[in-house]
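Can't attach files on this board, so I'm pasting raw text. These are the components:
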Amino acid sequence: MNWLSAARGRLAADTEVTAHLGDGALADWECSDRVGAVGAIPAASVGGDRAVEAPAVRRSLLPLGAVFAVVAMLAGCATTPRHTTPSPAPAAGASAGSASAGSVEQYAAVIKANSDRSDHESDGRVRADLATQSSTAADACLALDAQAAACQYGKAVATGMEARAHPTKAVGLLNSMLQSLNSAEAADPNYDKAGPSRVRALVLIRAPGWPLGPGDTDAGLAAARKAVSLQPDYPPNVLALAEALSKSDDAKGSHANYQRALELAQAAPAGPERDGWIHDAQDGLAQK
Amino acid sequence: MYDPTDQGGVSKLGGADAVLAFVPYPFYVEHAAQLHLTPIAQADVVGVGTKEKWSLVAKTGRVTGGPSLAGYTIVSVAGYSPNFVLHSALSAWQVPAAVKVEPVGQILSALRRVASGDQAAALLDQTQSAALPTLPFASDLKVVVQSPDVPVAIVVVVDNRLPAARAKSFQAGLLKLGKGAGDAEKLSLLKLAGFVMPALPADAPSGATPGAAAGSGTKAHGGKAPSGKAPKGGTKP
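---
Top answer:
Structure tokens for the assembled complex are below.
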């Protein structure tokens, strides 16, 4: 699994060494739960004032990068995995992010549209704006009906977007996200085709684990199993289970579920969501 | 380049274009001799420091000394380095030769297995052991032995591929990191406070002569691969 690193360090190997932390789209790195991490600096980069990728040591040294990484991936995973086409902004009612009067459904649609758009947005400032708008919409939704699954779920998604925009606060925000998902699940476990369990599973299996973050593969696997038990034919649920099994070192089970997700996706109506599910399933199958 | 795996790291550092690396100390213990690694700086990690103690955790009442580990598996995020686990971290104990060492990515899952009574003990780094009381099953676990102070992570020159003068200049730059205006804030995002001169334990393996890369200019690849007890005469500044 690739992670996007929030903190890019650069070492300028001139007479002095300086540290520079970049922003925006950053270097790929591998899942935080692997070990023995090494940062290597190529010979060609140690000379003059050429800047090179900073080495990372292991996850415990760079938890913020890992935390950012998970929220970057989670931002768009509320309803579908990574390959979606941005939804158009809702045309009426609650405009994106505004606190103007709208219905629960309209606020939920705003949040979903913002989340989809954020997932494809490379500009950090735009993502931060979308996160703020989504939080505003979620709060307005909760003000209308604090018990509505759509509002709690929307709050969770908005919180995930906030975490991505503010990685230094990500651990706390991810915990808040999990609380909102619990509330959404209590209100309606089948909302968004078992979305609360599915998204909780993805947070738990992708987030940095104890003690750095809320990641917990065992709990993530349980959540993914629950999502599948509630909505067994929805490809994203099966994809989440496949990912959780992979993270739990159950290669056979993971493969079987990626295969099932592929078959379910192929049987789904044509569209960008179907294409994304197929892509993710094929990616998963190719990993084995 | 970043590589999260032991074998990936070894492979990358084995390439002729790798001259410097930032590695966890367990990686250094396992591969210093093979890769001819020469420490030039030691990381000062926020919340940990330049050194840390590792803790062996077992189910309460089960493990009382090295011999009682017979039949056990020791799991750790540093499990990719059996030499570190058995001979650096647990140097105070005579650990039976048959003890298995396994790397784990999911330390929480491993601790659950330990707490439930599996024949396993977990070697935790300082951050993990400090958080132990936060676990709901903490009362089922006990720290049974701690390691001596060992470095957290070090910057090394690989196979003397960096000319000594250049290495010394780079080292000087590293040691200044964190001391300039605004440096601390930037470094803190990487959970680093800066770098200090390397101060390795006496039993640390030697890769190349320490002065070769950053000082004296001598070069000696005399270190043996740390099989069994790590060799004496470790790399020191």
